[in-house]
Amino acid sequence: MKKVFITGASRGIGKAIAENLLSQDYVVIGTATTEDGANQLSKKGIIGYQLDLGSLENIESTCKEIYNDHSDIEILINNAGFTRDNLVLRMSEDEWQDVLNVHLNGVFRITKRALKPMLKKKWGRIINISSTSAVLGNKGQANYAAAKAGIEAFSRTLAREVGSRGITVNTVAPGFINTDMTDSSSGVDQEELIKEIPLGRFGKPSEIAHLISYLCSEESSYITGQTIHINGGLYM
Q1: Theoretical Cys-Cys bridge with 78: which of 39, 100, 128, 148, CB 3.0 to 4.6 Å?
Q2: Is residue 55 part of a domain?
Q3: Span 77-113, pLDDT tens digits
Q4: SS (H, E, C) 125-139
C-alpha cells in the first residue's frame, strides 16, 4: 500500500481527497492546524498530525516526526491554505506576508523534505493545489493569487528537476468549489458567480478528489509539469 501525505486534510477539498484515497486503501497521513483537527483525522483512520505551515520551526519538527514514523511516503499533496482578503490599497504587510508564507513558502519547505525518500526510490507523486485565481485574478486576493501563481511556476520548475528520477509534479487549480471557505467568504454573491460558469454551478470537493486520485496513480505516469484546471469552464 502506498503512503500519501496530505496537508490540510481535515476540511474542504483536503478532507475529500484524504477520505477518497483512504477508501482506495492508501495509507493516508494528514495534517490539521489544530490538535482537535488532528485527533478527528485519526478517528477516521487517517494518521493525523498538527502542523502550522506559517512556522518554519514547526514545519521542521513536524516533518521530522512524520518522516521518522513513515520514511516510505511516496506521494505528497500540498493542499493546506487560507485567505486574508483585502484590496491592495488596504492590504496590510501581515495580510500579504502571511498568505505567501503559508502557501508558497510552506509548499517549498514541505516539498523539499518530501523529496528525499522519493529520490531514493526513484518514484513519487507531488500534487500542489492552486486556484483559478492564479490565472484570472480575483478582486481582494492579490496575495492569494500571487501565491498560487508562484506555486504553479515552482511546480513546473521542480518537474524539470526531478522527472528523470521517476517523480511527477503537477498542479490542480480548482475554481469555485462548495467548501467552508466559499460558504463563509464575505461579499461573495454566489448567484452572480454561477452566471460566469458555463456548467452553471459550483464544483464538489469529491470532483477534485477524483482528479487527484488519478494523478496519484501509475496510470498518470506520463503527466508532469502541468496545471490542470477544474472549474466548470470558468477559465478555458
Answers
A1: 128
A2: yes
A3: 999 999 999 999 999 999 999 999 999 999 999 999 9
A4: EEEEECCCHHHHCCC
Residue 178: phi, psi to the nearest 5? -70, 100
**What span, in angstroms and rounded, lies between the C-alpha atoms of 98 and 221?**
34
Which residues face 128 on adjacent strands?
78, 171
Task: Kindly report the pTM of this predicted structure.
Answer: 0.94
Q: What is the domain count for the chain? A: 1
Rounded distance, CA 6 to CA 145, Å? 21
Tell me, yes or no, whether 87 lies in a domain: yes
Read off the CATH number of the domain in which 92 is found.
Answer: 3.40.50.720
Residues 117-134 pLDDT 10s: 999 999 999 999 999 999
Residues in the chain where the model's pLDDT stays below 50: 186
Cell of residue 48, nine digits: 493525523
Range of the domain at 133: 3-230
Residue from 101, 99, 80, 96 nearest 33 by CA: 80
Verify whether residue 67 is a known catalytic residue.
Answer: no
d(CA 204, CA 123): 30
What is d(CA 168, CA 74) in angstroms, rounded to the nearest whole number? 11
Q: Of 67, 144, 222, 235, which is the active-site residue?
A: 144
Q: Could you please report the per-residue DSSP string of 157-226? A: HHHHHHGGGTEEEEEEEE-SB-SHHHHH-TT--HHHHHHT-TT-S-B-HHHHHHHHHHHHSGGGTT--S-
Element (H, E) at 42: helix 35-43
